[in-house]
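Whiteboard transcription, Tuesday session. T.W. wrote the structure tokens on the left side:
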């Protein structure tokens, strides 16, 4: 059995069938098909009791188990309602994963379409096969967004050759933030940074590990860059712990040759704390690292493990 979404912590997706029936996919129903790698990260976490505790010693908590489903969003589509930010949704459609925020976010990332520092409301992770001819990916993404009825402005587009049923979603609520991470991961072109290996002139191919991060909180631009660094370190740690190697040189891989990452930050005024840092010594950075690490491992496990 394949599942619409893999979810390490909240473990809740909603599948809206063609007839409108709603079925909930829980962790229990997919435990036999996913790795147990995320279990260690959950051992010392407590359930959210409705309010994040401001105690600096309190551990961040996974979101509630209760479903956030509120009727039929998209008949025939699979929808995931995030707990960390009311109105944040992810849809798995026939050829793409749509992450849609309730309002525009300050965004930073390496998406080929809508990357850089932007104000965005949607991240769209688009499936293409590994034979995709990528002469002009920006044009192709723009045309697809138009075909699907999404505004060209306010969206980032990523391309992936990973099957979308291997998507992993994780989220965590802290006292001064909420974080959601969505990953599609494959390692057929795993590579190690910092060594001499085969390289090519500037070109573009579909992303193999695509990371979409959302922070409901307030962050400085410098902290956003720091968050991208932390996410990249966590991805590298996951690959190292899984024993993924650069096939060309035989050393531990730090990523793949085509990875991409997008970060969106709500900047909602309800959060009194402005995060100036997001490294591994901070509460926020710690959450980002944990979630990226878990999601990379879960997505690879859904595909049967590193190849």
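and on the right, the sequence the group agreed on:
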């Amino acid at each position: 059995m394949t599942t619409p979404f893999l979810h390490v912590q909240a473990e809740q997706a909603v599948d809206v069938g063609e007839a409108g029936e709603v079925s909930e996919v829980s962790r229990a129903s997919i435990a036999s098909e996913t790795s147990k790698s995320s279990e260690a990260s959950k051992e010392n976490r407590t359930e959210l009791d409705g309010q994040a505790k401001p105690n600096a010693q309190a551990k961040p908590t996974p979101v509630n188990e209760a479903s956030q489903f509120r009727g039929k969003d998209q008949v025939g589509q699979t929808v995931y309602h995030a707990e960390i930010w009311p109105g944040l949704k992810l849809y798995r459609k026939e050829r793409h994963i749509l992450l849609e925020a309730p309002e525009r976010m300050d965004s930073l990332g390496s998406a080929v379409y809508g990357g850089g520092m932007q104000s965005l409301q949607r991240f769209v992770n688009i499936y293409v096969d590994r034979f995709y001819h990528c002469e002009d990916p920006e044009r192709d993404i723009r045309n697809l967004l138009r075909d699907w009825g999404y505004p060209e402005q306010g969206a980032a587009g990523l391309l992936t050759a990973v099957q979308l049923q291997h998507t992993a979603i994780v989220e965590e609520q802290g006292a001064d933030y909420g974080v959601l991470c969505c990953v599609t991961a494959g390692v057929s072109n795993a590579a190690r940074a910092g060594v001499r290996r085969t390289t090519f002139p500037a070109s573009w191919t579909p992303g193999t590990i695509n990371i979409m991060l959302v922070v409901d909180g307030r962050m400085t631009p410098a902290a956003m860059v720091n968050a991208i660094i932390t996410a990249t370190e966590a991805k590298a740690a996951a690959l190292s712990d899984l024993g993924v190697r650069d096939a060309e040189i035989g050393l531990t891989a730090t990523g793949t040759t085509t990875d991409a990452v997008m970060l969106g930050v709500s900047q909602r005024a309800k959060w009194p704390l402005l995060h100036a840092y997001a490294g591994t010594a901070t509460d926020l950075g710690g959450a980002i690292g944990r979630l990226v690490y878990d999601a990379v491992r879960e997505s690879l496990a859904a595909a049967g493990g590193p190849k």
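Someone added at the bottom: The radius of gyration is 18 Å.
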